[in-house]
Amino acid sequence: MNIATHMMRAGGAFAERPAVAVGGRTIQTYGATADRTARLAGAMRSKLGLRPGDRVALALKNCPEYVELLYACWHAGLVAVPINAKLHQTEFAFILKNSAARACFATTDLIDTIAPLASDPLHTVIEVGSRDYDRLLRTEPMPLVAQAPTDPAWLFYTSGTTGQPKGAVLSHRNLLAMSWCYFADVDQQSPWNTILHAAPMSHGSGLYGLAHVMQGSCHVIPESGGFDPTEIFDLIESWNDAAFFAAPTMVKRLIEHPQDRDTSNLKTIIYGGGPMYVEDCLAGLDRFGPKLAQLYGQGESPMTITALSAAMHADKTHPRWLDRLASVGIPQSAVEVRVTDADDNTLPPGEVGEILVRGDTVMNGYWQNEAATAETLRGGWLHTGDFGVFDEDGFLTLKDRSKDLIISGGTNIYPREVEEVLVQHPDIAEVAVIGRPDREWGESVVAYLVARDGTEPDTSALDTYCIEHMARFKRPKDYRFVEALPKNNYGKVVKKDLRTLDSES
Ligand code: AMP
Asked: Would you say the CB of residue 245 lies under 6 angstroms from ligand 1?
C-alpha cells in the first residue's frame, strides 16, 4: 500500500482538526492539508514532469510545508529525499547527484545553497512559500498512485564510513511497520495528540510524524524552526498532550533550563539517536515525571530496533530498574534482534557482540550500492555495526560501535569525513579524528594532527579552513598536535590508543 493513504484518510475523517501549526497558531486543518497534498502531487507529475519512482529532494529546515511535501511525493508515486538542512553545500551536491533527484524543494535560507547546484537531472528548484509554490497548489488534485509495499518511499542518507553518505532505501512497508511500532512499543497515543517538531524533520522527528498523521494529531513547528528550550517550554504549555522526539543533548538542555516551567501538558519526550547517561535520565524523570521513552534505531531500520517505554522508565520498584535505564530496552515488535559473534552465531545473554536486526522495518538496501547492501544485509540480517549485550530479561545494552562513528549532539559524524578534509590542508601531514566523551554533547570531535615540516598551523586558521569545507557541526572542537600518531605494524592508526592518550592528557 501507499503510506500516503493515511493523509487522504485523515483529510476525510479528521477534516476539521488542526493538522499543522506554527508556534501556538494553527495554520491548516487535515481537510486542507490533504487537499494541498493531492494538488502538489498533481503538480509534481503534470507541471514538473516527474515520473513514477523519480526522486524529489527536500532541502528544508523544519517548516509547515514539510508534511504536505512528504505526502505529496508519496501520493504521486515519487521518492522523497529529505536532506539535513545543516549540511555543507558540497554535501548537498553529493546527495543531489547520488540520488539523481530531478526536483528539489528548499526553504528560503537554503535557496542560495541549492539553486547553483541545478544541472541535469536536477531541473527544478522551488522555494517553499514562493509564488512558484503557490502556482503548484493551484493544480487539480490527482488520485493516489498505487504502490507495492516494497516500492521506495524515503531515501535516508546516512554518513558513510568511507566519507561518502549512503542512501538507505526505505519502502512504504518499512515506514508503515515503523509507525505501528511507535504505538505498540514507544508511546501509546491518546486521541488528538500533538507532535512538536523540536528536532530535524529530515530525520527522527519527520519519521515519527507519520504515526501522528495516522492518528490525526497536530504537527507543531517551532517558530524558530530549530531547537530553543524556552520556546519548547512555551509550546508544551500551549498544546495538549504534546509528544516530541529529541536527541539526548536536547533533553539535557531542557533539564538544565533555569526556569521552572509547567510541563503538566507534556505527554512524552522520546529520546534516542545517541547515548543517554543514567544520571541524566534520572534527572529527566525528576524534572518531567514518568514521561520519558527511549528508542534505539538507525537509518537502515528507522527508529525501530529496540525501545524502553515510559512504563519501563517509571517502574522504580523493579530490582533491575537502574540497569534497565542504562539499556536501550527490548526489541520493538516488528523486528527480531540478535547479538552475534564475528561469524554471525547468536551469543547468549551476557556476551557482547554485534547487533543484527531482521524485520519489516529493515531497508531494502543502499541506493545503487550493491556491494554495501550485500555486506550490510548479508544472510538476510541488518548488520548494525553497533555492539551490545542482552541481559536474561531481553534488555539490550549498547557497548560500543564497531564503526568509528562519533555522535555529537545526537548527530552522526564519521571521523573519516573530517579527516579527509583536514588531510588536504597544506600544513598537515597526518590526521586522526576521534570522539571525546563530553557531558553536554555526548561526544565532541577532536583532531590529532602531525604538522608538515614541523610547522604547526594556527588552530584558528584550521578552524576557518574546516568551516569552508564541511558542515560547521562536524568541525573539531579541539586540535592537538603530536610528533607521530600511534600506529600498528601495518602502519594503521590505532584509534583505541589515541583515545587512551586523549583521556590521559
Ligand atoms: P542514524 O543512522 O543517524 O539514525 O544513527 C544510528 C546510530 O546512532 C546507531 O547505529 C547507534 O550507534 C546510535 N544510536 C541510536 N539510538 C541510540 C540510543 N538510544 N542509544 C545509543 N546510541 C544510539
From this structure: no
List, in sequence order, every residue forming a beta bridge with 395; answer none if it has no partner.
none
* Residue ranges per structural domain of the chain: 5-390, 405-504
Ligand 1 centroid to 273 CA: how many Å?
Answer: 4
CA of 280 to the centre of ligand 1 (A): 17
Question: Which residue minimizes the CA distance to atom 9 of ligand 1?
Answer: 298
What integer pLDDT is reported at residue 401 of this predicted model? Answer: 62
Question: Which pLDDT does position 161 carry in this prediction?
Answer: 41
The H helix count followed by the E strand count for the chain is: 17, 25
Domain spanning 405-504: CATH superfamily = ANL, C-terminal domain (3.30.300.30)
User: What's the 200 CA to ligand 1 centre distance in angstroms?
Assistant: 15
- What does the DSSP assignment read for 393-441? TS-EEEEEESS--EEETTEEE-HHHHHHHHTTSTTEEEEEEEEEEETTT
pLDDT at 497: 87
Name the one residue in this structure whose C-alpha cell is 557482547. 352
Atom of ligand 1 nearest to the CA of 300: 2
Flag residues of the chain having pLDDT under 50: 160-162, 490
278: left (phi over 0), alpha (psi -120 to 50) or beta: alpha
Beta-carbon contacts of 96 under 8 Å, excluding residues fewer than 6 positions away, are 57, 104, 114, 117, 122
Q: Return the CATH superfamily for domain 5-390.
A: ANL, N-terminal domain (3.40.50.12780)
pLDDT of residue 402: 59
Tell the residue nearest (CA) to atom 15 of ligand 1. 273
Best substitution site from 252, 386, 408, 417 to test ligand 1's pocket, by max atoms within 8 Å of Cβ?
A: 386
CA distance 358 to 352: 19
Return the pLDDT at 304: 98
